[in-house]
């Protein structure tokens, strides 16, 4: 109970809700350039545009998914030189989002950003590339995983139960990739020296929270929330922003948990 009370106090003092709103804004700015960049890479990857949208569809509310598919299609039809523009826009907007995450984590640890501006921006860009790489791997794995599972089933006479277990393992791998991304993020982003193992509590919370909040919010919107009736044609945008806002809260909460754990280990720091 004391831990919960302390966490609530930290959330109020560090303006977590305000920082999460800032993250939601940058997430929205980064989304379409990122999707645009990934789609232009399709000729070089063993995946399709449906694979990319399918990953988002697993978590995004239906109204937001329609908005994403519609706008992505319009952007692709209007612009032929997508790769270079998409790459620049993705790196810039996503690195701004990661810079906001760094700011939120530094506030959680009660430290100031002493790293040089260029170094901090380079770190944000490097983390952006890392997140893009992990996202691409997460997209490719199901494709290759499905092919490998079918191969073993047909070549060695495995039963359909093996294929079912294999598919479940692919979900586990996707979760582990998300956990690895959060671990690296919580380890490198704050301007504090800490061991990688010390950020595992926050990374585990964020990984589980990301999945639970996404699925729960999607279910709520589809079952009870009718945002189109309130906001009209921009209902999909509102749902998308709320989803990003909730994800921002989860990410910053993970940083607060790690900061709280760090203070308990080193009370005099």
From TrEMBL:
<feature type="transmembrane region" description="Helical">
    <location>
        <begin position="23"/>
        <end position="45"/>
    </location>
</feature>
<protein>
    <submittedName>
        <fullName>YihY/virulence factor BrkB family protein</fullName>
    </submittedName>
</protein>
<dbReference type="GO" id="GO:0005886">
    <property type="term" value="C:plasma membrane"/>
</dbReference>
<feature type="transmembrane region" description="Helical">
    <location>
        <begin position="164"/>
        <end position="188"/>
    </location>
</feature>
<dbReference type="InterPro" id="IPR017039">
    <property type="entry name" value="Virul_fac_BrkB"/>
</dbReference>
<feature type="transmembrane region" description="Helical">
    <location>
        <begin position="200"/>
        <end position="221"/>
    </location>
</feature>
<keyword id="KW-1003">Cell membrane</keyword>
<keyword id="KW-0472">Membrane</keyword>
<keyword id="KW-0812">Transmembrane</keyword>
<feature type="transmembrane region" description="Helical">
    <location>
        <begin position="233"/>
        <end position="255"/>
    </location>
</feature>
<keyword id="KW-1133">Transmembrane helix</keyword>
<dbReference type="Pfam" id="PF03631">
    <property type="entry name" value="Virul_fac_BrkB"/>
</dbReference>
<feature type="transmembrane region" description="Helical">
    <location>
        <begin position="82"/>
        <end position="102"/>
    </location>
</feature>
<feature type="transmembrane region" description="Helical">
    <location>
        <begin position="123"/>
        <end position="144"/>
    </location>
</feature>
